[in-house]
Fold these 2 entries.
Entry 1:
Amino acid sequence: MTAQRACGLSDLVQDEARRVEIDGVPMAVVLDSNGEVHAIGDTCTHGDISLSEGFVDGDSLECWAHGSAFSLRTGKPLNLPAYEPVPVYAVTLDGDDVLIDPSVTLDVN
Ligand code: FES
């Protein structure tokens, strides 16, 4: 599989998460305060909650339901109750296009 357009860079709001779905794979895409774009699995590993409905804090995304924050770099939860990581996807930019290959997860652990 190849990288596909997830959204436009100009569609992203700094420090907010946007839910996208590529080939049925839900992802939370975040433009952080350093201008870096991240993509992690959108489903919290503690419950069936969309992480993109949560809160960006630095380079983490916090689930609104019970407060586990997931690293945007490693996918690991930084605090309980979640203890399993979410996948992290490689993001490439091509002009205004944010490209993600849903079949490639970064080995960051
Ligand atoms: S559902 Fe996300 S922390 Fe509980």
Entry 2:
Amino acid sequence: MKTGIFHALVLIAFALCSFNVNAEIKLHGKHAQMHMQCDTCHGDTRPREVPDEQVCLNCHGSREDVKKLTSKLNPNPHYGHSDSQPCNDCHKQHEPSVLTCDQCHKFGYKTP
Ligand code: HEC
Ligand code: HEC
Ligand code: HEC
Ligand code: HEC
């Protein structure tokens, strides 16, 4: 009996912990402003895994479209040495974004 209750408590505590972990995960910028839901990208209301980049492209179009968005910038941050750099190398969804180009260059673009 007692171990049964103990196991139940452990399970509840575990459930609360994992709930809290997700509760601290937030979005920023426009995705936050539009109240985007977790499952929109993760396909799951209790996300655990990094979503496939295809979810970004479903809304933002092809890589070619993304490149055009910033074509006025020289150099274009969407046109580096590789045509397939993952979006979330730079655009972090749950932490401040970074500009990986600046590991070697100093372009200084602010990454949303
Ligand atoms: C459900 C559609 C949708 C999905 C999925 C989505 N976005 Fe967006 N995103 C938008 C819209 C709409 C905007 C606001 C208009 C714009 O800037 O294009 C936006 C804005 C952005 C911005 C500009 C942010 C800002 O605050 O100025 C970036 C960068 C971005 N998205 C990257 C991504 C990446 C990377 C992914 C995949 C992890 C992604 N988006 C997934 C719809 C989406
Ligand atoms: C715009 C798409 C998008 C939305 C909406 C989104 N996420 Fe994410 N999430 C990502 C991406 C991309 C990553 C990979 C890390 C990064 O780029 O920030 C990630 C990583 C995570 C991870 C870590 C997975 C791992 O193994 O590292 C968790 C947990 C998570 N998200 C939870 C959430 C929760 C909770 C919400 C709702 C509040 C949410 N996400 C909404 C795109 C999204
Ligand atoms: C090397 C870093 C880097 C990578 C990788 C990257 N971006 Fe960006 N992105 C930027 C920077 C920097 C800006 C802001 C440029 C500026 O100053 O306007 C930006 C801006 C954007 C914007 C907003 C454009 C606008 O309308 O102002 C969107 C949307 C976006 N990126 C989507 C994506 C998507 C989708 C991918 C993956 C296919 C991606 N980005 C990959 C650095 C990156
Ligand atoms: C690991 C270091 C490194 C990173 C990260 C890096 N670069 Fe470079 N880049 C270099 C070096 C070294 C050169 C000069 C040698 C050459 O021309 O290939 C260069 C040259 C360039 C040039 C001028 C020469 C050319 O290829 O036309 C551009 C434009 C450029 N980088 C853009 C970018 C952009 C945009 C990013 C981010 C998406 C980026 N780089 C990320 C190391 C890097």
